[in-house]
Structures are given as C-alpha cells and as structure tokens.
Amino acid sequence: MHYLNNVLGIKDPIHKQKIALKAMDVVLFGPPKDYSHHMKDLVLVTLLLGALIGCWYAYRQNKNSRRHLRRMMKDMESLHKAELALDHLQKELERARLEQACVTSEKQNLERQLQQQGSDHMELHTSYSDLEVSQLKAEIEMLRAELQRAEGELQDRCWSPPVGLQQWLQLTHEIENKAYIKKKNGAEKQLQQAREACEKLRKKRSSLVGAFVSTHGKSIDDVDRSIVEARTSLNEVTQELQERVHRWKQIELLCGFNIINNSGLQYLESVLYRGTANGRGTMRGRMSSSQDDLDDETSSLYSPSAGKSNSADDDSQDTFDF
C-alpha cells in the first residue's frame, strides 16, 4: 500500500481494491486469455482481401472496357476507310466504263475509216511491215554476233590447260636445253681450237724461219677466220639462250605453271613413257635420230674451224720440217 500511495500516487481505495483483485487473479489463474483479437484480425484480413479483389476486378473490367473501346474505334475507322475505298472504286469503275465507251466508239470510227481507205493503205502497211521485219532481222543478227563474241570471250577466260600439258612442255624444254648445251660445248670447243691455233701460230712466228714461212702462207688468214667464226657461234648461242629463256617465260605466264623448274629429263621420260613400251622405243628412236641430225648440223658448223686448225697444224708441221 505504501508503494501504491507514495510511488504510484493512487489514493482512491476503490482503485486500490481493483488493482489488488487483478493482482490476485493473475497470481491465482495466470494472465487473462483474450480470444477476441484473433477474430478481429481474421475479419480484418478477410475484409482487406475482399477489398483488394474488388479493386483488382474493377481494374480488370476497366482495362477490358478500354481495350474493347479502342478495338471498336479501330473497327469503325477501318469501316470508314472501306466505305471511302468503295466510293473511290465506284468512281474509278464509272470512269473506266466511260473510257471504255470512248475507246469503243473510237475503235469503231477507225475501223470505219480503214474500211473506207481501201487497198492502197493495205499495200502501204505491207511495205511498212516488210521494212520492220528486215530491221528486226538485222538486229537479231547483230545480237547473235555479240552473243557469240561474248561466249568466245567467256570460253577464253574460263580456259584451263590440260592435265599432261605441263609435263610435255617440261620435256620439250629439257630436250631443247640438252641440244643447247651440246651446241654451246661445240662453240666453246671451236673457240678453244682457234685459241690453240693462234698459240701455235704465235710460237711459229717467234722463230726467224717460222716468221718467214708464216708471212708467205695462209695460216694467219685461217686462224683469223676461225676466231671470227668461233666468236660468231658464241654470239649465236648467247642470242639463242636469251630468246629461249624469254619464250619459255612467256609460255609459263600464259599457261600459269612452272616449266623451266622441273624434275629433270630422266624423270619426265619415265613418267610420260611409262605405259607405252613400243611408243617409248619409237619416240626414243625419233629423238636419237633428231639428236643425230643436230650432231650433224653441229659438226657441219664446226668443221671449218677443225679444218682451219688442221691446216694450221699442217703449216706448223711444214715449218718444223723446213
């Protein structure tokens, strides 16, 4: 009581009794159990859910009504456009009917005029038609010529060399190279013989008797002629080499593959004459005969120098005998 009077400040005895009664009830029976709050919460939640569902339903109905309204407006606009298009088509149809009537009347008038003109106009029309036909034929021929020229150019652009052409050209190059090497060796041999003849002549002229004999003989002219011929043959070999290299390079550019750089003569012969034994022998015979002809030509080219060297040797021998 002292606590209630002094600390809490409760002076009324009725209030004190109520507080004491409540405290005794709590001590004896525990805290009071109130079921009314759960029911209130349940009712409140139910009402809140109902309100939310109602708002959502109203929103959906409003949205659907607006969508239906927009669709109806679009349908009305499309209907209005269709009506306008129908009116436009009806006007176009009326205009087309009027034009068709005008064309029909003009056609009838023209037919009537053509029937009245007679046979003179028929002959004139036939002459005009013949002239047009001749012009069309000339144009067709011109177009045909252009087409053939274009086809020829297309075939030239699309041309590709055959499969075995590269190896045959390489074989031809190697055969020419072999003949060139032989001709070059012959020219070098001719030059060497001319040098030897010149050296022999110089040795003969170093002695007094040899100088006297050589001035009256023909050895000097022969040696000079052999030197000139050897130099000419070397120049010919050089020019032939330049021409051959230029020609084969141009062939490589036109064909689009390597010809000068190849696997060698023996390999090419073994590949190209693999399945033809008789043909290979025949070709070898022809190649040997052509090679013999080249040898004969080479020997005929170099025979004057040999004769000159022999004559120089004879002169030197005569000088020594003298």
From TrEMBL:
Compositional bias per record (Polar residues), positions renumbered to this chain: 299-310
Database matches in Gene3D superfamilies: 1.10.287.3550, 1.20.5.340, Transcription Factor, Ets-1
Keyword Ribosomal protein: no
An example Gene Ontology CC term for this record: endoplasmic reticulum
GO biological process, one term: store-operated calcium entry
Biased segments, Acidic residues type: 312-322
Region (Disordered): 278-322
Molecular function terms from GO: calcium channel regulator activity; calcium ion binding
Keyword annotations from UniProtKB, A to Z: Coiled coil, Membrane, Transmembrane, Transmembrane helix
Taxonomy, superkingdom: Eukaryota
PANTHER family referenced in this protein's UniProt entry, alphabetically: STROMAL INTERACTION MOLECULE HOMOLOG (PTHR15136:SF5)
Name this polypeptide is given: Stromal interaction molecule-like protein
Phylogenetic classification of the source organism: Eukaryota, Metazoa, Ecdysozoa, Arthropoda, Hexapoda
